[in-house]
Amino acid sequence: MNRPHTHSLDQHDLDMHSPSTHPSGTNPTDIVITVAAPGGVDQLRVTPRDPQAPGAGEVRLRHQAIGVNFVDTYHRRGLYPLPGNVPGVEGVGVIEALGAGVTGLTVGQRVAYAGTAGGYASTRLLPADRALPLPDAVSSRDAAASLLRGLTTQMLLAATHAVGPHTVLLVSAAAGGLGIMVTRWARQLGARVIGTASTAEKAALARHHGADAVIIGRDADVAAEVASLTGGRGVDYAIDGVGGDALPRFIAATRSGGTVASIGRAGGPVAVEAAEGLARDRGVTFTRPSILARLADIGIYHAAATEVMAQLARGLTADIGGSYPLAEAAQAHAALEAGRTTGALLLLP
Predict the structure, then answer these.
(1) Hey, what's the torsion of the CAs at 348, 77, 81, 300, to 10 degrees?
(2) Which of 70, 310, 317, 325 has a 20 to 30 Å separation from 150 between CA atoms?
(3) Which residues of the chain have pLDDT under 70?
(4) Count of domains observed in the chain
């Protein structure tokens, strides 16, 4: 895996103005990554593809950076339905062509998007109403690493459970791309954050980004450690993106009247009925919010994106843990699923 990128003004200028195309608008190295069949990383295929002509209401985007998210691995494995056969729900690029009827956008404009599959490609067609103009203050790589995580964070900390100065929050995988953003945003709101991490190195990174305390180890007794940290009270709100055996521990660590949000299954399937029963016994609200379902509402998408873009412009961006060439998407998936990464991963066309 490549080391994290440091963004200079020169790199930002490059992000904004250089789509790396030939004068004709095409590139002989254009590729798309497809899923041949549900399964492992060996099912990802690298195929040449010429740029497509946008239809009515569409734009063609040449990617500068593509976000890698756990949902991409769920799509590849067939755990979630994938519209089409190209994974990737987040990216940033430059508009190359406009379809009929598109207004308010221009060729050469830098835009971001989230929540729409088809991103693992040098170029893609995108519904024009999903294209979000990118502020000059936000680099393309930061936006590609942060937009979906920012939208997820906004959902979790505002729509799912209102977090404020009196909230004690438990966050799984606090050194991951989403965990870091949730921690930073929650601390900005005045919350106390307890994170979990698999190693001491990841725990140090989580503390660096604002976690007040970190519980270390995949087999840690989370409820007991939370009880020790909260005087036996438990947390007000727990966000679990791991699933599997971790989810019951998060429910057990939450006080009566609190909330547990289950948002992923990186550590294994979520036993929903068992989780609901445990939550009910403890007087805990159990919820499974879906960011992709939320973003299907175009009004919510734009309202939430406005708030997130403002946060990104103020510097609240995801930590970029590494990047891979687009053609090495399989290696990126393997590293993410093996837990070898911290922060967010990018694919670079």
Answers:
(1) -50
(2) 325
(3) 1-28
(4) 2
